[in-house]
Design a protein that fits this description.
heterodimer, A: alpha+beta, Barwin-like endoglucanases, ten-stranded mixed beta sheet, 18% strand, B: mainly alpha, 11 helices, flat
Chain lengths: 378, 332
């Protein structure tokens, strides 16, 4: 074993010194290679980060949301339904919720307007998300005015701007008191947007959902697991789509790498000829070239991945944001939590190193079978 | 189909591997028909040169095949969140009828490709291409399996629908279902522990005997194959329940998840590597009389046997450790 390792070490040693001697030639290759890794890695890191954020956000969401349907459309749900849900065995808590969207014509943007269930907002005050604050240029103590559904004006004093940490979910939030919510949007007492149901035992969620459908046939039941599954599939799909679009770039890169590898300089040909003349076997020359490829690949992979990491986690993935995140006027500014996954690195390795290796094998072989005799005569 | 990076990677890998194998098989047929080391004809020279290209290509393709088994299982594990009822890789593999056939083919190809790489390694050590016919004949056996894997895997992935309700490992590895997995789960505890330790110690002893005296290589290689099967059965029948600390959870896939400290990797990676090094003896021992390999094979076989024995020992140690430190106590 040791002599094999020793032999490979010597070949690697030789390879690295020959790489050092021809720095300029390899730097261009390295730059393009790293750029390809950077592109693909950015896409993967970004979509994984979003998936994780979604999972973290949804971890606190209620297990079940019950919505009333009228003619296939989401409609307001009577508060009396909540009492019937409380009676179902396995249900831990039932919370009727009030929320909706408010179109602000001045900004051409939609707010998510919400009556918080865990904190009380005093009448006449509003708590706003970071996106709303930026768009309206509002801070704590400022007064904002809005038109209600009947045309009359409502005035709110900003009591608080939500912290930046919750930006992803809270950018477009607009939290007000229940009475003002009903008055401004014209919603009757006793009617709610939907009902959140939490279930004590996660294994019972499906059973409880079935019971709800049986008890309230005019409702639609949305499970948290289902939302998560949909998000996962959606972001995987977007990521896959980006990767397929980038296949063209990978292909061009492979052609470039193959071309570069097959254009051996006269000096390199002489070197290989000499090596073979002093006793190197064809397999040794192939091993040397494979080590060369491995060194270039590793360097490019590390550089590209590092750049992608910085791009996604420190510059919020500025290049791909619109495609992967979706689009909205009040879009959250957020910095995803840094996260690196072995599975992802493996997949990425396959998408970049594999094409490079395939593209360079034939040129490597061509170099390795050079006849020393023919070289030295020429 | 579910559009996902890892799936695209796996599909591409299998297509490339199968294509390389088909091309190499075409070349192999040429070698089997026309190879003549004593001749100096142009065709022989071309064959000699090309064989370097073909073995390098196959080396890459088979290395990818080895890696794709890992990626496949990881992917199945990760995708479980997208199927109703799935909690680990089992659910994803059960999402349609082709999941488990793909996995089985991948495991078979893992060992075929691994032994071929070892055969190739031996061949390059001899100066006169001693095993060139043997290795291309063997390749002709492997190629259909690689094609089958590529086709079955494509059918599996293309047929995946996220809204299918699949079954979780609890139903596949429960003791009263009528499947092979269930049979293994239902193996009585004490006999299966005894059987596991007997076979594995026999394998290690046979390996040590072979390393010391270069005898009983065939026995050792055969025991390696047996030890692999017994180890998988042991994973399902008793190692798993001690890891999960739950007397009825027999799933061999949940062990690779984070909640169990990724201990599955510490078990499966040594087990698969040990088996492939052991099986490699099958690719070496028949040729130890060839003049140019007389010095090569005993040394290489001894080295591989050492690796195999060491890795089996690691596997047994990790398995024993996870049983010994478990809070589960089984009394009957």
């Amino acid at each position: 074993m040791t002599d094999w390792v020793e032999k490979q070490r010597n070949i690697l040693d030789f390879t690295l010194s020959s790489l050092r001697r021809r720095k300029g030639r390899h730097l261009g290759m390295l730059a393009v290679y790293a750029a390809i890794v950077f592109l693909l890695a950015s896409v993967m890191l970004f979509s994984h980060a979003i998936k994780r954020e979604a999972a973290i956000v949804l971890a606190d969401a209620p297990e079940i949301v019950v919505q009333r349907m009228v003619a296939g459309r989401h409609d307001l749900i009577p508060g009396a339904y909540a009492d019937r849900l409380t009676g179902i065995r396995g249900v831990a808590a039932v919370t009727p919720r009030l929320w909706g969207y408010y179109y602000d014509a001045a900004l051409a943007a939609n707010y998510t307007i919400l009556v918080p269930t865990d904190q009380a907002v005093p009448a006449g005050s509003v708590v706003i998300g970071g996106g709303v604050a930026r768009a309206r240029g509002a801070g704590v103590g400022d007064t904002l005015s809005f038109r209600g559904y009947g045309g009359e004006q409502f005035f709110f004093t900003v009591a608080e701007v939500l912290p930046h940490a919750s930006e992803l979910v809270a950018a477009d939030l607009f939290l007000i008191a229940e009475t003002e919510y009903r008055a401004m949007l014209g919603i009757d007492d006793g009617a709610y947007t939907d009902i959140a149901v939490s279930v004590r035992n996660p294994r019972e969620v499906v059973t409880v959902a079935n019971k709800i459908i049986a008890a309230l046939p005019d409702t639609r039941v949305i499970l948290r697991e289902e939302i998560l599954r949909t998000y996962d599939a959606l972001f995987d799909w977007r990521e896959g789509l980006m990767l397929v679009l980038l296949t063209g770039a990978v292909l061009a890169f492979a052609i470039f790498a193959g071309d570069k590898a097959s254009g051996l300089s006269a000096e390199e040909r002489r070197e290989i000829g000499l090596l073979k003349a002093v006793g190197w076997e064809t397999t040794d020359v192939i091993a040397m070239k494979v080590w060369e490829g491995a060194a270039v690949s590793l360097a490019a992979f590390l550089a590209g991945y590092l750049l992608a990491y910085l791009h996604v986690f420190h510059f919020s993935g500025a290049l791909f944001e619109p495609v992967l995140k979706g689009w909205a006027v009040l879009y959250p500014e957020f910095r995803p939590a840094a996260f690196v996954d072995v599975f992802q690195v493996l997949t990425l390795f396959f998408f970049t190193v594999f094409p490079y290796t395939v593209a360079t094998i034939v040129p490597i072989w061509r170099a390795a079978i050079i006849d020393p005799d023919a070289i030295m005569r020429s | 189909m579910i559009f996902q990076p890892a799936i695209i990677a796996l599909l591409l890998a299998s297509v490339v591997t199968a294509t390389v194998a088909v091309v190499a098989s075409g070349f192999g047929v040429q070698v089997l028909r026309h190879w003549d080391i004593t001749s100096g004809s142009e065709r022989q020279l071309a064959l000699e040169r090309l064989t370097y290209l073909i073995s390098t290509l196959l080396g890459l393709a088979f290395a990818v095949a080895l890696g794709s088994l890992l990626l496949f299982v990881l992917n199945a594990d990760r995708m479980a969140s997208q199927f109703v009822g799935a909690m680990c890789a089992v659910g994803t593999l059960n999402a349609n009828a082709w999941g488990f056939p793909t996995l089985v083919l991948k495991i078979v190809n893992f060992f075929l490709a691994g032994t071929w790489l070892i055969l190739n390694e031996v061949d390059t050590r001899g100066w006169d291409y001693p095993l060139i016919r043997a290795k291309y004949r063997y390749l002709l056996v492997i190629t259909p399996f690689l094609i089958a894997e590529a086709v079955v895997q494509a059918v599996y992935f293309l047929g995946l629908e996220a809204d299918v309700i699949t079954s979780c490992c609890g139903s596949l590895f429960s003791t009263d279902a009528a499947t092979v997995a269930a049979e293994m789960s239902a193996l009585p505890l004490v006999p299966s522990i005894i059987g596991f330790y007997t076979v594995l110690s026999a394998t290690v002893v046979a390996g040590l005997v072979f390393i010391r005296w270069r005898r009983g290589g065939w026995v050792f290689a055969g025991l390696c194959a047996l030890a692999f099967v017994v180890s998988i059965a042991a994973m399902i029948s008793f190692i798993s329940i001690y890891i999960y600390e739950h007397p009825h959870h027999h799933c061999p896939f949940c062990v690779i998840q984070g909640e169990h400290g990724y201990i599955g990797y510490a078990l499966y990676l040594p087990l698969f590597a040990a088996t492939v090094f052991g099986l490699g003896l099958f690719a070496m021992l028949p040729f130890k009389q060839i003049p140019s390999l007389r010095a090569v094979i005993p040394a290489l076989a001894g080295r591989h046997a050492t690796l195999s024995v060491a890795l089996f020992a690691v596997f047994v140690a990790v398995a024993t450790w996870s049983v010994a430190t478990s809070n589960l106590v089984m009394r009957n």
